[in-house]
Amino acid sequence: MGKFWSHGRMARRPLVLMFTALVYNTLLSGLEACCLTKTQLQRIDSKVLSYGRQLMRGEACVKLVSEDGSTESLPSRKVWKYLELVPTSIELAVRRLQFWQAVARNIAAHTPVLAVVFGSFKWEAASPLDEAGKLTPAAGSWAQQLYADVQILAEHDDGYMLVRDMGDQPLLLFTHLREQFVQVDVTVLKRAYQSVAIPPPGSQEEPLAADVEVHGDACSYRCTCTLPDGGTCGAAFKTKQQLAMHIRSTKGGTHGEVPADAKATVSNVCPWCRAIFASKRVARTHIRMAISKRKCSGRSSNHTFTIEHPQSMECSFCLQEHENVESLLACITTHVAGPYILVPTNSRADLLCLERSMDSWLKGLPAHKKVKHQEPKQVSTHEVEDIRNKIIDLVAKLTLKHDLAISQLEAATFRTILSTRDDPYLIEHQNAVQEFIAKTQHLHKGNPEGKDARANQTRTEDEGEPHIYGWSAMILAAITDESAPKDSQEILKKHAESITDPKMLLDLVFVCRTRRCYDKRQLRVHFSVHPSLEPVLAALTKCFVNRGAKLKRGLPPKSGGARELQRLLSELEGIGL
Predict the structure, then answer these.
(1) pLDDT digits (tens, 9 = 90+) for 321-364
(2) Cα 270 from chain centroid?
(3) C-alpha–C-alpha distance, residues 300 and 283, integer Å
(4) Which three-class secondary structure state does DSSP give residue 524?
């Protein structure tokens, strides 16, 4: 990001925020899953602290003098405090504990993770846990790391009881102590490191920045800035960095003269070319370059910005009050020797009229640019027809493309069966769906308030969805079918006995619907179920195939509408339209 990190006028808050987002979090991304050694953690901390000291822009160069006369650099803890961060070991421990808390909140979804960390296979000689649930020397690095991270919580009130109850049995965090473990705020580790400790009476904290003025023979760097009374400051410092920090902190206050570009920047408008910029800071950069090069480019951004009116109408050079912005800017140009405008602006009369019209300024219109009224473009009837034909051609091609994409997705996710209309499985499916729809319509007609509710939701949650009733009807039809394979019927019977309420199928059966075919004597059935129901769907498919149905694979043929649309497009391309 170039000079962003070392720019002297950059505020600390956005600087630290960008450093945390782009450097610190990027450096630590994914490391919570690694078992790092102490040396590796120290290397990471050393790199972060190195960048942090550069980010402090001289504040970390102060040398602290001990009572014995020896000097030492600014402690790393103060650099962490400046960055509002914590060492890598603490940050990764907090992230790991938050991960294990997420595992404890939903044990059923993370059973494989716990099995990998705390479980063992039959052929393994040693187990990670003994009979009492304590870690053994054969325990993996992740289990030992979890135990070590939890032990750190014992130093704080939030985790003391948890560590005491856990003892040497880390698996209790996911069983008996699960609720207690989830409620612990593990970020207390970071807050404890960043908190301010109460010092003992009489102690003094070392200064973070070199802002203390020291006089004496040992201080060879003296400030020569002129004070308002005409005298010299004379403040002495040990290092050049301390002197630079002193001058920077007092600039614009009690030291020296304010630069000419700062006095000339009363708004986000250049006094010479009257270009409008995004902010006063950008305008000051433009004015500084214009004064140093003795020429004004007369160019601003292509965007339109709003005028920032001066806080005071007093000229910073002659201290004269002015009635309007035009006279203030004109007065500034008489005090600064300099820039001539490279790019010619409008006539002086037009410029004065626009500058004196504050309404135009409030709208954010650039003073050196005329606003042209854009007339509507005249297009012939032939051109309009040509554009319309191109749009129709593009829409038709996109329709065919999307139709192909939908067919590919259905072929990849659906199991499709082609059967006759008189198949008893399909007849039972259609009867169950129609009965459900009729029942739902009757409920809404019988309830006067249900009409308003149906505008937003056609069925209540208690009634479920129609496709699960169709699925149940086909399962029951296959069970009662004497010609169905016995092994498939056994699977279907177990499935039917396990379902006590049709609503239990809402999260298991996603799609169960029939569609018409080109041959009106046939119907196609689409299925999509949860992986746990794949054996049931395979048994039902076997029953369908046993009755003469066909299991279709691959992409289906194009529909009649898609074929007709493709034919028309081919004819248009042949004609050359």
Answers:
(1) 888 888 888 888 888 866 666 544 444 434 444 444 444 444 45
(2) 38
(3) 9
(4) strand
d(CA 52, CA 282): 28
For CA atoms 277, 280, 286, 291, give the dihedral sign. positive
CA-nearest of 370, 372, 349, 360 to 307 is 360
Closest CA to 156 of 184, 125, 116, 131: 184
- Residues belonging to the chain: 577
| d(C-alpha 26, C-alpha 28), whole Å | 6
Cα(336)–Cα(315) distance, rounded to whole angstroms? 12
The token duo for 137 is 């020397």
Rounded to whole angstroms, the Cα distance separating 225 from 222 reads 9
How far does Cα 227 stand from its chain's mean position? 50
Q: Across the strands, what pairs with 523?
A: 419, 516
Check if the beta carbon of residue 533 is closer than 8 Å to that of residue 504.
Answer: no
Q: What phi-psi label fits residue 15: left (phi over 0), alpha (psi between -120 and 50 degrees) or beta?
A: alpha
Sign of CA pseudo-dihedral 426, 430, 433, 436: negative
At 162 the three-state DSSP class reads helix
Q: CB neighbours of 84 closer than 8 A, spacing ≥ 6?
A: 16, 20, 194
> Distances from the Cα of 437 to the Cαs of 43, 248, 449, 464, in angstroms?
68, 79, 19, 11
Could you give the C-alpha distances from 49 to 19, 35, 52, 86, in angstroms and in order? 12, 22, 5, 11
Q: What are the pLDDT digits (tens) for 508-529?
A: 889 998 988 878 888 889 999 9
**Which pair of tokens denotes residue 226?**
């002129």
- Half-sphere exposure of residue 304, counting CA atoms within 13 Å on the CB side? 12
Q: Which amino acid is at 177?
A: L
> Which residues have C-beta within 8 Å of that of residue 274, sequence separation ≥ 6?
329, 345, 351, 355, 366, 367, 368
Alpha-carbon dihedral 142, 143, 144, 145, rounded to 10 degrees? 50
Q: Which two tokens stand for residue 313?
A: 């109408």
Residue type, 548: G
Q: φ and ψ at 493, to 5 degrees?
A: -65, -45
Q: Positive or negative CA dihedral for 135, 143, 163, 41?
A: positive
Neighbours of 407 (CB within 10 A): 17
Residue 182, classified by CB atoms within 10 Å of its CB into exposed (0-12), middle (13-18) or buried (19+), is middle
Rounded Cα gap, residues 236 and 401, in angstroms = 77
- Taking a C-beta distance cutoff of 8 angstroms, is the pair 444, 452 a contact? no
CB 300 within 8 A of CB 276: yes
Would you state the torsion angle of the CA atoms of residues 41, 44, 50, 51, taken in this order, to the nearest 10 degrees?
A: -140
Amino acid at 560: G
Model pLDDT for residues 412-452, shown as the tens digit of each residue: 888 898 899 888 898 888 898 888 888 877 766 655 554 45
Question: CA-CA distances (angstroms) from residue 397 to 44, 402, 565, 570?
Answer: 55, 9, 9, 11
Question: 141: burial class by Cβ within 10 Å (0-12, 13-18, 19+)?
Answer: exposed
